[in-house]
Amino acid sequence: MIFDMVARMLNKAYSLVFPEGRLTLGLMTPLTPAAGVLADPATEKALAQHAEACGFSALWTRDVPLMIPQAGEVSALDDPFLWLGMLAAATKTIAIGTAAAVLPLRHPLLLAKSALTLDRLSGGRFLLGVGSGDREEEFSAFGMTAEQGGERFRAHWEIVHAALDDAPDDAAKQVLMNATGGYEILPQADRRIAMLAVGSARQSLQWIAANADGWASYHREEQRQQGRINLWQQALAQRAGGAAKPFIQSLNLDLLDDPDAPSEPITLGMRGGRHALLDYLRRLHGYGVGHVLLNLARQGRPRRDVMEEIGSEVIPQLG
Fold this sequence. Notes:
CATH superfamily: Luciferase-like domain
Strand order of the largest sheet: 1-2-3-4-5-6-7-10
Oligomer: single chain
Helix content: 40-55%
Number of helices: 12
CATH class: Alpha Beta
CATH architecture: Alpha-Beta Barrel
Keywords: Flavoprotein, FMN, Monooxygenase, Oxidoreductase
Number of strands: 10
Distance between the termini: 17 Å
Domain Luciferase-like: 39-241
Order of helices and strands: HHEHEHEHEHHHEHEHEEEHEH
Enzyme class: oxidoreductase
Protein name: TIGR03571 family LLM class oxidoreductase
Largest sheet: 8 strands, parallel, barrel
Organism: Herbaspirillum rhizosphaerae
CATH topology: TIM Barrel
């Protein structure tokens, strides 16, 4: 009930992705990634529409400001807000979100304006996930050090959070007045836009529990992840009021043709058939995971086939 009350205070996207008592699935976009190559917009819009028809709850994208190699690979990704604007225009009901925008590297007033605009144009379907960034070279290029990232994350969060609130209190109003000189960014939103912390964000878990509307983390070995979720729930319970907030997990997925293929680990995820996937998702939900963000295997089966199988055979059994 507490979780449901929180959801009613937030925009439509929050209820779409985090319905009480049910695990939902999202997809990382672009859905046809290739190292160092930009995705084709027409293909991605068609796949986004297909994901919506298959019953996925959200489409996510990452913020990678510079093409800096990481783990031996270079990512070529368009601006996340323009990209999500394209996907929002191509769809009607599915939520869209950043996982994550690099908060220390973005001016908080401009980030807030992008979020408010995208939420309005999408009809309340936007979730703002933010992280602190994990490419050391980017901090230097943007005129700061990695050590400054945590402090700047908190400072920028305070401004953006105040700007996205539909009914800011006196303290939030003062934060905005100090940041803008007394001017509005845009007229107030109808509902507050949810803000999610992605990764450690260079903050304590207690800070994230107190300030974020949810916490997103990457896939880990099951027992370790269960322990991490328990720590999250303990941090929430220590807060005044103890309102529940969702835990989100990413999962690299190579879904095989054979529905009975057993699960085997891959980097930050699993390979196996749909029965193994469903069993794993049910266990995650039992641990307290509210949403799983799928990264579909680059060299696996055609994306449409995988989405259709998950949409017809997995998603209906999660709720």
